[in-house]
Amino acid sequence: xxxxxxxxxxxxxxxxxxxxxxxxxxxxxxxxxxxxxxxxxxxxxxxxxxxxxxxxxxxxxxxxxxxxxxxxxxxxxxxxxxxxxxxxxxxxxxxxxxxxxxxxxxxxxxxxxxxxxxxxxxxxxxxxxxxxxxxxxxxxxxxxxxxxxxxxxxxxxxxxxxxxxxxxxxxxx
Length: 173
Hints:
CATH architecture of the largest domain: 2-Layer Sandwich
CATH topology of the largest domain: Pseudouridine synthase
Structural class: alpha+beta
Shape: globular
Oligomer: single chain
Radius of gyration: 16 Å
Number of domains: 2
CATH class of the largest domain: Alpha Beta
Number of helices: 4
Largest sheet: 9 strands, mixed
Number of strands: 11
């Protein structure tokens, strides 16, 4: 298994007909399966494995593997918006709710942007962005910081990867 810190601007696909950069160009040779996806405008933690069964256990919603994101939005969310996101909002592909949403530092008011930590247990297409949009908030930055028990290492720079030294706890999921 590999941990990869995806920078914005890369696609999670093997080949792009438009010639845009993909995450696979930086990985070592192998038959890597991307565990989940991040859109071109999102960054952060991606996992890669060569074990199809493990990839399925990590991605399929029935296993309830948590994904955690740091999200920067323009402006602050009010209590009503935070409540809606916790209880659930209606999206075009069904209802969605965060397991947890919390301001990163509620005392910080110098900037027009605010950071939130959110957790969910599925990974529908652009789900986090669409949920914030449903309550009138605009996401300006989205970074996945954790996938299940694996956190993005602070010293892993964007575009770098490393092997997971002991993926046993992932295989038990």
